[in-house]
Specification:
This protein is an alpha+beta fold. The chain has one domain (30-133): Gamma-B Crystallin, domain 1 (Sandwich), CATH 2.60.20. It has one helix at residues 2-24; strands at 35-36, 41-42, 45-46, 51-55, 65-68, 78-79, 88-91, 97-100, 111-114, 119-121, 130-133. The strands form 3 sheets. It has a 5-stranded antiparallel beta sheet, with no helix packed on it. A 4-stranded antiparallel beta sheet has the order 6-11-8-9, with no helix packed on it. It is globular. Residues 1-42 have low confidence and may be disordered. Residues 1-30 form the signal peptide. This is Peptidase inhibitor family I36 protein. It holds the Pfam family Inhibitor_I36. Keywords: Signal.
């Protein structure tokens, strides 16, 4: 009986240590670098509530392009103007937004979905060429 208790205690101690390490570790590679923010400004990126804002350069650099729900077909692919793209973004639409490397919103290229409560991405892992806003 004593051997079983020692093994159980050792197993539980190991599991707790693994859980603590997993919770303390940074997010896995490949996940979007989105950050929640209160208010409409993060670093140098202004983006009002209800908008999806895109910048052509990392760290919210260059001329901001803002999209509002009133001008977007929900769950439809919205390509960025030809020859443009985004390297940074902020999602303040209140809805999930998926950004695509492909101008056709093809899932064969890179894509990521950002929550709508206030996602700030100072450097996208790929050039954003299109996006979709989801119902919820």
């Amino acid at each position: 009986m004593r051997l079983r208790t020692s093994r159980t205690t050792a197993l539980l101690t190991g599991l707790l240590a693994a859980l603590a390490a997993a919770l303390a570790a940074p997010p896995a590679l490949g996940t979007p670098a989105a950050h929640a923010a209160a208010g409409g400004r993060h670093a140098s990126g202004d983006c009002d509530a209800g908008q999806l804002c895109l910048w052509p350069k990392a760290d919210f650099g260059g001329a901001r392009r803002a999209y509002e729900l009133s001008g977007i077909d929900i769950e439809s692919c919205v390509p960025l103007p030809k020859g443009s793209g985004a390297a940074a973004l902020a999602n303040r639409t209140g809805r999930p937004v998926t950004t695509y490397q492909s101008v056709e919103c093809a899932e064969t290229a890179e894509f990521d979905t950002y929550p709508g409560g206030g996602s700030w991405v100072p450097q996208s892992p790929y050039r954003v060429r299109a996006f979709k806003v989801w119902e919820r």
